[in-house]
Every structure is written in C-alpha cells, then in structure tokens.
Amino acid sequence: MTLNDQIFVGPAPGYLDFARVGPISRPAAAAIAGATALAARVAPGDLDRLFAGAEAARGSAARLLGARPDEVALAPSTSNGLFTVAAALPGPGTVLVPRGEFPANLYPWLRFAGRGGPAVRLVDPAGGRHITADLLRHHLTPEVTALAVSAVDSLTGHLAPLAALKEALGPDRLLIVDAIQGLGAVPLETEAADVLVGGGQKWLRAGWGAAVLLIRDRCADLLRPGLGGWAAVTDPFAAHHPAPPLPGAAAHLATNPDFPAAVALGAAVDDLLARGGPAAEGARIRATLADLLERARRAGAEVLSDGLDPGERAGIGTFRLPGHDPATVHRTLAAAGLTTTRRAQWIRLSPHATTPGAAADLLTDALGTLTRTASSRTIPTSPHTRTHPQEPTCPTP
C-alpha cells in the first residue's frame, strides 16, 4: 500500500458541500505527494520536473477552457486572480458588477477604483440576483468598459448566459468571469469570456493553491501587467530592469506558481477530461441535484429559484423548510451524516458526480424526522375540550 493509499479517505456518502470545498480527489492527492517528494529531495533535474509539471497543468487547463496555452496562467487563487485582473484593467471607465455577487468578485474592483482602475457601478439584477442580456443593455453607457459576473450564482446555482452577455457587451467591452462555482461542474460558455478565473478547490477537487487565469489574446492589449513581477518578464535575470513582459496571460503573474498545487490542478483537470469532461460530469451532477431537490420538495421544502429551467441551474440547489428553524434543520442534517452549507434561512446542497444515491436517502430520512417531530407537537383540540382560562400555554420550541 502506497502512502497516498494510506492517507486518502475521500468524502463521506452524505457530503453535499462541493460549492464550499471539494475534498481532494485521488489523482490530485497523488500529484501533490509526487511533487512534494521532488521538492523534499531536489536531486538534479527535480526542479526542472516541477516546472514541467506546472507547464503541463497550464496546458491541461487550456484544453478544458478551449484556449491557447499562452492565454492561460496559474494564479494562487480565484481572489488573487480577480485582484490581478483588477490591477490590469486601467481607468477611466466603469466596471459593472451585479448586486448580490459573491464578495470575492466585488472587492477587487472596489479596491482599485480611485487607484488607477475603473469606477464600480452595482447593477440590480432581475428578480434580485440574475443579470440578463436585456437588463445589461440598459446599463451600457459610454463609460462602461467591463462586466464582472459569476458563471454560477453561489446561492441559487443559476448559470449565467455568458454568450448572451458577451454579445450585449460587444467586442470593445470585457466580460470578466468568476468561474469557480462552475469550473468542472457543468459546461460553461468559456469562449464568450474575455477573462476567466477559477480555483481548483471546489468542483475540480484539486485543493488550494492554484487557479486558472484565462486572458484571451483578443483583449491582451486592453490590459496592463499591473501585478506582473519578476517571473512575468522575458529576462528575469537581466542586468537592467524593467524587462519586457512575457506574452499572454503569464505577463500578469507576480511570481512562480505553487508547484504541488499546480500539478494537483493539472491532475484534476486531466481526470475530469478522462471521465468525459464537463458535459458528462454536469449531467451526473444535475441528475443527482434534481433528485435531492425533489426529495426536499416532497418533505414540504421551498426551493430557491425553483422556476429555473434545468439547463439554467448548475450544481447548486438551495431550500428552506417552512415552519422550521434553519439552524435546527442544518444540525439535523449534520446529525444524519449530511454535510451542507447554511446561508441565513437557506440550506445549500451541492453534490458531485461521485455523490452516491445513498445521499438522497439520507436527506429523505433527515427531513422526514423533522416533519414527523413537528407533526407530533401539534395536538388537535377537541371541540368538547376547553382550556382553563388560567392555564399557561407553552410555546412550541
């Protein structure tokens, strides 16, 4: 038995929280172990092997995104990649951000507004969360230079119509996509994105430390290497600096990648593509999610954005159980072996293609426990029974 076999456990059957973090897959864990062994030994040629592994990961990411390898670089995280793009997009101008975006896709633009970057304008989406191409057109004033949007809404699972949004923006405005909640979970219209960032720690199951950063050649001239550091220039050991930036997305990186994280990302992407890619993976995820949400409905749950067409929902579904304290619901699910995320009154479900059918049965049993308990606490009053006027009434817990 190898060391990787000894340490690899994998998620429990009831793990339904891939939108928060995807437990590292076996191929990614093996890649991390191999890269760490090289880093621990550093025999002749080992550093070259680490660099080669990171370069191979970049190529794998390019295949996943349908991009040229020079259009892809490896950033440390989604947030770091978005800050990199915010530093690269010069002002004046305005970047549109839908109100309700996950804050990782808001703060980079706020931090660089007034520091050489574009101003920020929040857009109120239709129905409170989802931006449409028609709504976007109403906000395309002359000063708008970009739209920053999530490929998948982190609460509702809504899949953004990236192609329609890009068509509305036109060729001279940038579509900047935070893809972390869709990358590896469902097919994305990546060809529409001018810039795309997505980390490996969720649906790709690659762990932390590496994210794909896509900057299309068609928009490279619109961006400056704001955070580009010594490893992003053509001759980092030149006698005099600054040296010319590297071509493509690599011009925007501050330093070399985290090599174990990079090879883990590459291994995870290769594994995804070997299993049929996002189309096959997405079909399995959506089928599992549909079963989970249907089980929740049968228990009396209300599903957030329940009117979404199946093709408009990615791997995330969210529900609440009317009449039940959401914290109690969340604790009951956890006690039944189900790992989920609670956001205020809502419980978020996010299964993976590897989630077994037993997870749906666990959900049915847990919700059934809640509803049966609630029913047993409701005692009907007989028309022939009167409560003494001075008898205290006990509030339902």
Overall description:
With 397 residues, the chain is an alpha/beta fold. Helix content is 35%, strand content 12%. It folds into two domains: 24-274, 3-Layer(aba) Sandwich (Aspartate Aminotransferase, domain 2), CATH 3.40.640; 277-374, Aspartate Aminotransferase, domain 1 (Alpha-Beta Complex). The chain is built from eleven helices and eleven strands. The strands form two sheets. The chain has a seven-stranded mixed sheet with strand order 1-7-6-5-4-2-3, with helices on both faces. A hairpin with a 2-residue loop joins strand 10 and strand 11 (346-349). Helix 2 (26-41) packs antiparallel against helix 3 (46-65), helix 3 crosses helix 8 and helix 10 (326-335) crosses helix 11. 47% of the residues are buried.
Which key phrases capture this entry?
single chain, 397 residues, alpha/beta, Aspartate Aminotransferase, domain 2, Aspartate Aminotransferase, domain 1, 2 domains, 7-stranded mixed beta sheet, 4-stranded antiparallel beta sheet, 11 helices, globular
Overall tally of domains: 2
Compute the number of helices.
Answer: 11
Rounded mean pLDDT score = 91
Largest sheet at a glance?
7 strands, mixed
DSSP helix fraction: 25-40%
Summarize it.
With 397 residues, the chain is α/β, with parallel strands linked by helices. Helices cover 35% and strands 12% of the residues.
Annotate the secondary structure layout.
Elements: H1 3-7, H2 26-41, H3 46-65, E1 72-75, H4 78-88, E2 94-98, H5 107-112, E3 119-123, H6 133-138, E4 144-150, H7 162-169, E5 174-178, E6 195-199, E7 211-215, H8 259-274, H9 277-298, E8 302-303, E9 317-320, H10 326-335, E10 341-343, E11 346-349, H11 358-377
Parallel strand pairs: 2-3, 2-4, 4-5, 5-6
Antiparallel strand pairs: 1-7, 6-7, 8-9, 9-11, 10-11
